[in-house]
Amino acid sequence: MGVRLMVVDDHRLLAEALASALKLRGHRVLAAAAPAAGAAELVITRAPEVCLLGTAMPAEPGIFDPVVRIKRERPQVAVLVLGPVPSPRGIAAAFAAGASGYVRHDERIEGVERAIMKARAGEAAVAPQLLQGAFSELLNPAAQPDDEGQRLLQMLTPREVEVLVRVADGEDTRLIAAGMGIAPSTARTHVQRVLMKLGVGSRLEAAALAARTGLLDRAGPVARDSGSEA
User: Fold this and answer.
1) Contact at 8 Å (CB) between 129 and 104?
2) 0.90 cut: is pTM over it?
3) Residue 71 near residue 55, CB atoms below 8 Å
4) The HTH luxR-type domain covers which part of the protein (predicted)?
5) Partner of 123 at 20 to 30 A CA spacing, among 76, 150, 197, 221?
6) How far is residue 42's CA from residue 25's CA, in Å, rounded to a whole number?
7) Which residues are 5's β-sheet partners?
8) What's the pLDDT at 147?
9) DSSP annotation of 38
10) Residue 86 gets which letter from DSSP?
11) Is 66 in contact with 94 (CB distance < 8 Å)?
12) Which residues lie closer than 8 Å to 26 by C-beta, 6 or more apart?
């Protein structure tokens, strides 16, 4: 049985070509839209089973914000990120945002269709070679420059820094929310954004990266300033 899906990509020709190819294979394509800025709103409104969401720069901070919003408001929608050859951290950021998988722009239509079926079934859909690269970097991380902690710190807002410090202290979402005086859903969103910006796939990885790069040492004053402003 065909899948109800959407194709959303900045490159209209690519979106329309992919949509046409999937229609020929028996799938029901609800829309092929170009503007990334309106992608989340469109997907939330149409509520497909699977959404193929195009991206040009998977490592850019905030690039997966539409995925976060879609999963928050339509958790039943499986989102497949469609993009160029990603870095392992780019894949981790996509999954941290809630994506069900990652499909390369140059993937054959058979591979795209397999990923769609996996995503609809609730399985992770990512090519084995991309997973291998991600595992390789996790097992043999590249040496970080001395200023890496400062660079990462500059990517985070003061509130996100406070969240990171609390994550490193082992606080769960409920404790973070209580300590910061915010709703658990807001705390969860902050955590997701921190993971995405750091390019990691879990809270444990975020804490380890922060400790390894000295980010936590630099974060203390920022977190305290943030707390005094709240």
Assistant:
1) no
2) no
3) no
4) 149-214
5) 197
6) 23
7) 29, 50
8) 62
9) G
10) P
11) no
12) 2
